[in-house]
UniProtKB/TrEMBL annotation:
Listed GO CC annotations: cytoplasm
Classification via NCBIfam families: HpnZ_proposed (TIGR03366)
Positions in coiled-coil regions: none
Protein name from the UniProt record: alcohol dehydrogenase
Family: Belongs to the zinc-containing alcohol dehydrogenase family.
SUPFAM superfamilies reported in the protein's UniProt record: GroES-like (SSF50129), NAD(P)-binding Rossmann-fold domains (SSF51735)
Cofactor names: Zn(2+)
Positions of the Alcohol dehydrogenase-like C-terminal domain: 198-313
Enzyme Commission no: 1.1.1.1
GO MF terms, alphabetically ordered: alcohol dehydrogenase (NAD+) activity; zinc ion binding
The organism of origin for this protein: Streptomyces indicus
């Protein structure tokens, strides 16, 4: 913990500026001061290219430009501006390896008071903000990030590899939030539509919770991978009956499948539809007579991030999580990392900002 943060000259930094769809990333060198009150300065050790980053760069999802993208990362604390603690009470001190939430919340608005901190009225989202050149360290595609007050911070155990820990900040924590809304899973039939990064994570977490999991995806490689993550069976379309249906792809057909699969008293949790798409019709009579529940999940709460890291720490060797991340890019080759993310390989590409960075 640092009560007197270092001066700007102590922290030369570098970030990748995104100027909008169809334009290449530009690497910018600058310096930053130590953290202000309640802030934390973190050196980013590894970041991953999330699917929503790809949607942003291709113009499918709107985001302010210019900006610094990236919101799945793991890093090492360099300094803290006063007393800051992790979600479990661990002091945030230099040298601590951490992941942090995709958003910072005020903690005082009406939504925060209702427990909806992920939808705070003054929400600040890492990797989704318009660039402020005086305070640019707001995304994962940089050598450093300044964590604002109201950011959930979780310590990363020593045995958890960077490649596995980084996606906890978005993919794994989102899945933890989805399962929290799904309710009790032991002994229940769970359908997961979409076997990408979120989908196979959901398969593993649901299987560990005692569910019999069916995964649906049109891609044969993804179906095979879902089996390795604990699926009892896989299908192309997901035509099955389920007590719980988890939609993690965002495809309209998958949403329909989830809604139509529910048995009496079933719950559908939708989390994949985070970009514009066609409306999906549903039969309200079927929902009413079937006692169905449909829940939407976007972002997550601090407790979800803690559960995500705990799950990965306990099970990352049981399931092949490390295989979900490939590549070894730096900020200067970020365009290539995004090209790789749009390919047919692993669902995440790894970016090591320090590989082409200056300073700490």
């Amino acid at each position: 913990m640092t009560d007197n943060p270092p001066s700007a000259a102590d922290f030369p930094v570098r970030y990748a500026r995104w100027d909008g769809p169809g334009r290449p990333f530009t690497v910018v060198d600058t310096v930053t001061a130590g953290p202000g009150p309640g802030e934390v300065l973190v050196r980013i050790d590894l970041a991953t290219v999330c699917g929503s980053d790809v949607h942003t760069v291709t113009g499918r999802r709107g985001s302010p430009a210019p900006g610094v993208l990236g919101h799945e990362q793991v890093g090492t604390v360099l300094a803290a501006g006063g007393e800051v603690r992790c979600e479990d009470g661990t002091p945030v001190v230099p040298g601590l390896r951490v992941v942090w939430s995709v958003a910072a919340s005020c903690g005082t608005c009406d939504r925060c008071a209702r427990g909806l901190t992920q939808k705070c009225r003054a929400l600040f989202k890492y990797g989704h903000q318009e660039l402020d050149e005086l305070a640019p360290l707001t995304g994962g595609f940089a050598t450093h990030c300044v964590l604002r007050p109201g950011t959930a911070v979780v310590a990363v155990p020593d045995g958890l590899p960077d490649e596995v820990a980084a996606p906890a900040a978005c993919a794994t924590a989102t899945v933890a939030a989805v399962l929290a809304e799904a309710g009790e899973l032991a002994g229940r039939r769970v359908l997961v539509t979409g076997a990408g990064m979120l989908g196979v994570t959901a398969v593993a977490m649901a299987a560990e919770a005692g569910a019999r999991v069916t995964a649906a995806d049109p891609d044969p490689y993804r179906r095979e991978q879902a089996l390795r993550f604990g699926a009892a069976e896989v299908h192309t379309t997901g035509a099955t009956e389920a007590d719980v249906a988890l939609e993690l792809s965002g495809h309209p057909d998958a949403v329909r499948t989830c809604l139509h699969s529910l048995t009496t008293g079933g719950t559908a949790v939708l989390a994949g539809s985070v970009f514009p798409g066609p409306a999906v019709a549903f039969d309200p009579e079927r929902l009413v007579r079937g006692l169905h529940k449909v829940v939407g999940v976007h972002n997550y709460r601090p407790a979800d991030l803690k559960r995500a890291v705990d799950f990965l720490a306990a099970h990352h060797t049981t399931y092949p999580f490390a295989e979900l991340v490939e590549g070894d890019y730096d900020l200067g080759t970020l365009d290539a990392a995004f090209a790789g993310a749009r390919g047919a390989g692993a669902p995440r590409q790894a970016v090591r900002p320090r590989a082409a960075a200056v300073g700490s």
